[in-house]
């Protein structure tokens, strides 16, 4: 499978727990992006990473949220002490350096439900 | 902040009808892309337009990039139920590496049989 792999597809957490969302980009893609989507809404940018570097995190809440893309392994979006308002679909995308030319390849998303 | 406004937000039509979806901005983009998203899945890239005035066709879908590279349209001829989905436009900012895309809010299209 040459696509972006996200897991888990569905994640249920109780308020106050931690959520860890994983994303393996397309092989050879060095850029990873995380977006959040509420039902019947568009995609809200959260963070853009390259290997071992956060390039732009302007869309990510400053508290409780963090992201990484280590040299080895998948990118991780981590949400600490989840609240009901964190319930949403989280999409990861990857691209080669020129995303404006080649576009993003998206994963199928992780649907987080906070109960 | 560069914004992309899509219209209409919702569109419900009968099979066989034609439709046009618009994507507008006050900013200039180096390129613009259209994606389609089906329920429970991630968006899938349909097309990238780069040159002002460019027109691309993908079967029954026609995409146009405005001359000034600030807007784009998607026209679907003889819509089919399989065209149902959320259509998103996304722009790469001019003068940057183009790696971060700005997405519009989307047009939710429903084609009824």
Topology, element by element:
The complex is a heterodimer of chains A (115) and B (113).
Chain A: E1 5-7, E2 10-13, E3 19-24, E4 31-37, E5 43-50, E6 53-56, E7 65-68, E8 75-79, E9 88-95, H1 99-102, E10 105-106, E11 110-114
Parallel strand pairs in A: 2-11
Antiparallel strand pairs in A: 1-3, 3-8, 4-5, 4-9, 5-6, 7-8, 9-10, 9-11
Chain B: E1 5-7, E2 10-14, E3 19-24, E4 29-37, E5 44-49, E6 55-58, E7 61-65, E8 71-76, E9 85-93, E10 101-103, E11 107-112
Parallel strand pairs in B: 2-11
Antiparallel strand pairs in B: 1-3, 3-8, 4-5, 4-9, 6-7, 7-8, 9-10, 9-11
Written description of the protein model:
- The complex is a heterodimer of chains A (115) and B (113).
- Chain A is mainly beta.
- Chain A is built from 1 helix and 11 strands; from the N terminus they run βββββββββαββ.
- Chain A starts with a strand and ends with a strand.
- The model of chain A has no long low-confidence stretch (mean pLDDT 93).
- In chain B, 0% of the residues lie in helices and 55% in strands.
- The radius of gyration of chain B is 14 Å and the shape is globular.
- The interface between A and B is medium-sized, with 28 and 28 residues.
């Amino acid at each position: 499978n040459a696509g972006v792999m996200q897991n888990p597809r569905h994640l249920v957490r109780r308020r106050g727990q931690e959520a860890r969302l994983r994303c393996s980009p397309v092989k050879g893609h060095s850029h990873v992006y995380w977006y959040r989507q509420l039902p019947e809404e568009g995609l809200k940018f959260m963070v853009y990473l390259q290997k071992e570097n956060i390039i732009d995190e302007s869309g990510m809440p400053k508290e409780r949220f963090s992201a990484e893309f280590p040299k080895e392994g998948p990118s991780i979006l981590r949400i600490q002490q989840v609240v009901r308002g964190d319930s949403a679909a989280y999409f990861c995308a990857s691209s080669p350096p020129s995303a404006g030319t080649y576009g993003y390849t998206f994963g199928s998303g992780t649907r987080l439900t906070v109960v | 902040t560069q914004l992309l406004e899509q219209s209409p937000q919702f569109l419900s039509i009968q099979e066989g009808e034609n439709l046009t979806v618009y994507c507008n901005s006050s900013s200039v983009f180096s390129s613009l892309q259209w994606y389609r998203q089906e329920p429970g899945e991630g968006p899938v890239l349909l097309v990238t337009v780069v040159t002002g005035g460019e027109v691309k066709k993908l079967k029954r879908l026609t995409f146009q990039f405005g001359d000034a590279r600030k807007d784009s349209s998607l026209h679907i001829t003889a819509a089919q139920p399989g065209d149902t989905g959320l259509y998103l436009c996304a722009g790469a900012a001019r003068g940057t590496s183009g790696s971060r895309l700005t997405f519009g809010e989307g047009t939710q299209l429903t084609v009824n049989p």
